[in-house]
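User: I'm putting together a small comparison set for a docking exercise, and I want a reference complex before I start. The sequence is below, and the ligand is protoporphyrin IX containing FE. Could you produce the 3D structure with the ligand included, as structure tokens?
Assistant: Of course. I'll restate your input first, then give the structure tokens for the complex.
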Amino acid sequence: MISKMKPREHWGRDDSHTMHKDDSSMVRLTLQLMQQNRPQVMVNLALAVIFLVDFWMSAFNMFHRLLIKLHIIAPLADNCVPPAFSPTSPPPFAQWPLTHLLCRGVHVYNFLTGYNEELRLHHDLYCRKPKNEWIRDWAYWEGIGSQGEWGTPFAAADSDSRCPCPGLNILATHGIIHTSGRKVAASKMVVGLSRAFNIAPTMALQLYSPLFPVFSARGHIFDLEDLSIMNVIEHDASLLRPDFHLADWKKDPKAMCRPHQDMIDRWFPARLKHGQLKDDMTDRDFAEALCIRRNESRRHNRQYTSNVVQSLIGSGSCCLMLNVFGGKVLDMREMAGSVSRDLPGVRTTEHGEQYGYERIPARTIKGDKVQGCPMAAASHQQKWQPATAKRFFGMTIFEALWTTFNIEMRARA
Ligand code: HEM
């Protein structure tokens, strides 16, 4: 078969994005991804197991409505972010079957190994890790508030550590990992994001997998800003951060890890051609935005780098915005850390640019009478729920891949 692609020695600096254009079939894209993504052997093996489990979960997600009709499982509670649980008080089996079984298993394991709450507190306080924390941590969850509300966001200060990922910064803003963003244990972070955004455990682990070889030497404990290492997950031409080589590092040392109001305003709200505001963004809008950013970076950034993995990570982030935040423009503005009129803790760069911090969209709903306070007529609670709420096992890798490939193929078209 004669290849339509140019021989490798003739590729120019900017050709990485156009090299697939001749034959941009999904099979070729997948083959290139497999060729370029060669992590450690153990990570590969773990990923294979994760994919198998994920396949099972995706099938379960597809049929869960039927299982509810057949009364095999109970429907999910309104509040899909699970309330607090631990090995000694697991969540109900009918709603969280796997977590229930895991909690029971970990309870027995804790009993046999003499691990208790006191030891856990000690580990948390000194950022030590118990043995087998990757299994153990899945059995603990502190919840997000007694009524399922996310609470007041913590305005990050200069001393706090933040990363280029709005999703992870939100975990720190709402105290799901330590608000300082320092000495974060990867196992706790992965568990936190899986529970908070209703992302399947397999998908949450897969999101962390590129960093596994990077942080193994230091026991998977890091400050959030350490995630900005270039071209592991952080990449050029992303929607919400400038390219590494285009940032003014002297005047703005936090350029990669803080929200950029101009970029937020540029992509959210997305305007229709006749200038009307758009409520929800679709995969087409994200693909168009990515395409514009990639072309811009190629033109203006002399050190622009990209390969198929980086591109898919870029469209993968868009997939998270679409699937977790439902593509809702107003929600995504808050997720991305936009400055709003009453936002406390807004900071200013040396250039005089104002910027906020990433947070859960403040969607208040009128609730029933406040518990224990019969005089209060109605309460207003912050009740944002991830758009992944209706999937029994949360967003799986297969679902994410489907959306990611959709966005990527459109961006390349
Ligand atoms: C272990 C899990 C995760 C890791 C290690 C991670 C890491 C990163 C990194 C390093 C970036 C910067 C990419 C760049 O702009 O160059 C990023 C971007 C992003 N991440 Fe994450 N992330 C994770 C999970 C999540 C989750 C669960 C969400 C959503 C709920 C999320 C949403 C985003 C978004 C919206 C972007 C910005 C994309 C853009 O600017 O185009 N991430 N992530």
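Residues 1-22, 369-380 have pLDDT under 50 and may be disordered. The chain has 14 helices and six strands.
User: Thanks, that's exactly what I needed.
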